[in-house]
Amino acid sequence: MNKTKYISKLSKVSQVVDMSNKIRSSLLAVEKKYAFLSNEYYLSLIDWDDPDDPIRRIAIPSEAELRPWGKLDASSEHDYVAAPGLEHKYTDTALLLVNNVCGTFCRFCFRKRLFMSENEEVSRDVSAGLEYISRHPEINNVLLTGGDPLLLSTKRLGEILRKLDTLEHIEVIRIGSKMLAFNPRRVLGDPALVALLGEHSRPDRRLYLMAHFNHPRELTGEAREAIRLIREAGVVIMNQTPMIRGVNDSAKVLRELFSALASIGVAPYYVFQCRPTQGNFAYTVPIEEGYKHFAKAMAGCSGLARRARFVMSHATGKVEVSGLSDDYIFMRYHRAAKPKDEGKFLMAERNPHAYWLDDYTVETPEQFIEVEKAAAAICS
What is the DSSP string of 199-241? Predict the structure, then answer.
């Protein structure tokens, strides 16, 4: 399998070179602030005759990114850094940021700060993070993320997986990667990588690959073949995607994506509210509009395709949007940074202009408090 060439300068993308001077200059101004990176495979999926092409929207800068809005660390991830390259937000889960490179830099990336030269949150040497995990037996779930772990060498990835294998309290290992969409040739061209993933996915502890397909067009023949190889190696593949304006902010597109994934054995997992990250305004959808798209998509899917949850990764936890009434939005903590908030229900008056939990005045209604007390009594 031929290797795919990576392109780190917009000026090297021939279709951009052919654009008008005005458009090209505006895109280069964005590139100076927010890094550009892609590869020949992924760029080949773009219909350059369509200015609204969803793959183009994912990969190619937009002048709208320069609009002042949001924060670089919208979920305050820095507050949960417990060791170099490691975040410990939820009691049983640790995130190892093993890389600050991706197969393409999504224009709506919530961790674009990692690709800036002054950022030090990622550590190529994750030994301190692994040592932290070894000293914290309450951690039973580790997510390798970044950046993209599958852009590590197979040898280096193997070293990390083997170290985690020695820790008896680790029950689940996940790898967050968009390489199946960005460049499936990373899998197709390296049988040793497939073998490594299979080696660490045993009957008593499966390895999970958290894929990131944002649009059905990313499910090419090569992507499907890479999925097949990894699944046959015994790895469980699940999919998560943010809801992105102009990419998948429609029930029709989401339904097609969920159904296509389910048909090839990939479980839809999370649909994320796009984080209010600096530069992301043009890619965001208001929460209530997004939930309506999501709910309509779910209604048109089979049970196997409707396993996703619509959530936002807030600083205080993973908040699931559960429903809307004429006057209120209903939410709950699917995961909470503070154990006392775990499972807590929230409600707020509807706000069609809300993009984040902070845009609501949230209440914990009395009837939900009683439900929580009853559930706690049953569990005890």
Answer: HT-BTTB-EEEEE---SGGG--HHHHHHHHHHHHTT-EEEEEE
pLDDT (tens digit per residue) in 330-369? 999 999 999 999 999 999 999 999 999 999 988 776 655 5
- How long a stretch of residues is the chain? 380
40/3 Cα distance (integer angstroms): 10
φ, ψ for residue 176, nearest 5 deg: -90, 120
Q: Which residues pair with 310 in a beta bridge?
A: 271
Which pair of structure tokens corresponds to residue 245?
A: 């304006």
**Two structure tokens written together for 95:** 């995130």
Q: Give 9-42 pLDDT, tens digit per residue.
A: 999 998 987 888 888 899 999 999 999 999 999 9
What per-residue string of b and e applies to 87-119 under the rule 16 or more CB within 10 Å gives b? bbbbbebbbbbbbbbbbbbbbbbbbbbbbeeee
Helix (H) or strand (E) holding 292: helix 287-299
Supply the DSSP symbol for 380.
Answer: -
Q: What is the pLDDT of residue 376?
A: 59
Nearest partner of 163 among 117, 232, 109, 94, judged by Cα: 94
Cα torsion 243, 108, 247, 44: sign:
negative
Distance from C-alpha of 83 to C-alpha of 129, rounded to nearest angstrom? 5
* DSSP state, residue 114: G
- Which amino acid is it at 369? I
Helix (H, G, I), strand (E, B) or coil at 251: helix
CA dihedral 291, 297, 298, 300 (to 10 degrees): 150
Give the tokens for residue 377.
């009594």
Give the span between the Cα atoms of 355 and 362, in whole angstroms.
14
Distance CA 232, CA 171 (A): 21
DSSP 277: B
Tell me the two tokens of residue 347.
Answer: 């409600």
Task: Please give the torsion angle defined by the CA atoms of residues 362, 81, 199 and 153, in that order, rounded to the nearest 10 degrees.
Answer: 120
Encoding tokens for residue 94? 């640790």
DSSP three-state, residue 97: strand
Distances in Å between the Cα of 138 and the Cα atoms of 90, 117, 126, 235, 380 are 10, 34, 19, 24, 20
Q: Cβ distance 287 to 273 under 8 Å?
A: yes
